[in-house]
# Entry
Amino acid sequence: MLVVADHDQLPVTQARAGDPAAWEVLFRRYQMPLYAYVVQLVRDQQASLDVVQETFVSAVRHIQSLRDDERFGGWLFGIAHQKCVQLWRRRDREAMGAEKLIRDSPEQVEEDPGELLVRQEQEAEFMKRLDELPAPHRSVLLLHFLEDFSLEEIARITGCQLGTVKSRMHYAKLALRKLLGKRSS
Amino acid sequence: MKSPREILLQHHRAATPALDRIRQDVLAGELGAHATTPRLENTDARDDAPGFALKLWRELIWPCRQVWAALAAVWLVLGVFELATRSHSPRVDRSASAALQTSMPMSFAEQRQWISELTQLRPNPPVKPSSGARPKPRSEGPAVWRTT
# Structure
């Protein structure tokens, strides 16, 4: 099961007022999931650390643009996602693949809500198979795994249509299950 | 069995120190700068002055042979100069003091003689006795003075 901190307990209101202690709590809470998300997409540790830093800086500077305090996590991941997209554009590599994948994927597929759990001996294999997924599918899956964001929230973070997110999620889970199942059998 | 979240976070746990550093940097740079940093910077600069001097000593002066050689040369020159001046100065002082001891009583005697000669040659003029008339106020003076 996913264990995600209750958003109501996060001191977003105090952070809006510029309280450093509140920001400390927020950054502590999100630094590792954010880094895991970014590094799985970017595949470069140093660049990922830079993205996390830029995300934190942007969050502090533009906190007033956050409308709903309860959506702080999604808002923060949205900033990080945009930074990743900028990085991809600069590198001009994975973005090409991403565009192709968006075109090739089916638009409307029923979401499979089944929980995915991984056995200990499959952990390394899980990471490897996750890395093999195309970036857009990996992104959707990571947001679901790391913070249990809803499909609507993931659509907001990634700036995609809800249908696209659904199809990507389905495709990604299917692919991952297939890869892991094939390996275990 | 672990959830994908647990696996992902565990997989990247090694980045925690770097992330902690980034968090501290952002907090200090973005939030500390607005509130308290200027005052802290001043006190830090004041507090770091001995540390800076110590660092300067350790890194620049202590390991540098040229600095020590130059200092030694300066001290050597000063020492030679001091020795040279000391070897000359006692003689000068003794002769000067001897000359002073002999010349000072002479000069006093000469001065006394000159004074006595001068007083004898130009005696003070005799003081005229006063006429006894007291000075009158200006209003009682001659009429020429009261034209205006």
User: Anything to note?
Assistant: DSSP finds four helices and no strands in chain B. The first helix of chain B runs from residue 4 to 11. The two ends of chain B are 130 Å apart (CA to CA). Confidence is low (pLDDT under 50) at residues 33-46 of chain B.
